[in-house]
Amino acid sequence: MGARALTLRRGAGSAASLVLVLGVLAACSGGKAKSAASTTTAADIQSTIGISTTSPTSSSTTTTLPSGCDAGPLPSSAIRISRAAGDFNGDGTPDTLVVYGTGNDITPSPYVVRVELGRGAGTVETPIVDAATDPNQNVKALGSAEISARAGLPADGSGAEAFVAVGSGASTFLVGIYQLTACHLVRLTGSSGLTPAALPVGGTVTHLSGLRCDGIAGGTRLVRVAAESTDGVTYDTSEQPLDVTDGKLVPPGPPVKGTLSVNDPALPRFGGLDCAGVDAA
Q1: Which of 46, 88, 138, 170 could lock 180 by a disulfide, CB 3.0 to 4.6 Å apart?
Q2: Which of 71, 70, 62 is nearest to 127 (CA)?
Q3: Taking residues 45-49, what's their average pLDDT?
Q4: What's the Cα-to-Cα distance from 144 to each of 104, 113, 253, 275, rounded to whole Å?
Q5: Out of 122-126, 165-169, 180-184, 257-261, which region has the weakest mean confidence (pLDDT)?
Q6: DSSP assignment string, the chain
Q7: Residue 68's pLDDT is what?
Q8: Rounded to whole angstroms, what are the CA distances from 33 to 20, 30, 168, 193?
């Protein structure tokens, strides 16, 4: 034990000497010191990187959430809660889209959009920066559609985009679209990238605006549609495909123009929201 005391005196600032001391202690105690050091290190690592493990008596699983997927539970004070289903991260597991207000019945805004990922993969949320403040307007979850495919190319693999009503009027409502990217809900903007896209759906007798999802080779593409009439009998129509590119809705070319009569069965599609998985009701 004199050798151990000498080691302690000479190794106060030396990592190598500390290892030697631990080795001597382990030899004197039948290896108990080494076992204790291993347990402490494992606990420290779990605390540092956020690993959650099951009880040793069950099958062991480890879950590490990507940074940002930790919004926590839905607040107990949330109001005007609406939900819709979708696979927003593209892993094949159903997720849940949630929209809720943080105010009160008189002033329900600000609103928040939230995705609760399946299989305990975490939660992500962000404020709806342009949500209506009028309590008579609808702000709610509408659903999901994978709209990131381009002509001849498959979808980008990021999962379905989230459709949210961000406001409404007497005959129209506005749609905001979000994409889950690296544990962040990103609001798609117009082609300029400056402001969140708020796409109108509905209209009047002489002016219609809408959205539809068209199947193309490789997936589905969003199309913005409109119809206008000066006499309520003949309508000039516009169909503008939109690509999802770097967080923006970008027209890949000029719109397709046409003409429809008021009795044409295709006309109502120019004032509606027609995407599988999205419910405008």
Answers
A1: 88
A2: 71
A3: 28
A4: 27, 13, 25, 8
A5: 180-184
A6: -HHHHHHHHHTTT-HHHHHHHHHHHHHHTTTHHHHHHHHHHHHHHHHHHT-EE--TTS---EE-PPTT-B--SPPTT-EEEEEEEE-SSSSSS-EEEEEEESS-SSS--SEEEEEE-GGG--EEEEE-TT----TTS--EEEEEE--B-BTTB---SS-PEEEEEEEE-SSEEEEEEEEEETTEEEE-B-TTSSSB--EEEEE-SSEEEEEEEEEETTEEEEEEEEEE-SSSSEEEEEEEEEEEETTEEE-SSPPEEEEEETT-TTGGGGGSEE-TTB---
A7: 54
A8: 12, 8, 68, 60
Residue indicated by tokens 């605006």: 209
142, 175 contact by CB (below 8 A): yes
Q: Give Cα separations from 86 to 60, 75, 90, 128 (angstroms).
A: 29, 22, 9, 19
Residue 144 tokens, joined: 């999901």
d(CA 191, CA 29): 70
Q: What are phi and psi of 37, to 5 degrees?
A: -65, -40
> What six digits make up the tokens of 261?
């009569």
Residue 77 has pLDDT above 60, yes or no: yes
pTM score, whole prediction:
0.75
Structure tokens at 65: 């959430």
Position 30 pLDDT exceeds 80: no
Altogether, the residues listed in the chain come to a count of 281
Tell me the pLDDT tens digit for each residue of 146-202. Answer: 998 877 666 777 799 999 999 999 899 999 999 998 889 999 999 999 999 999 999
Q: Which residue has the tokens 């559609």?
A: 145
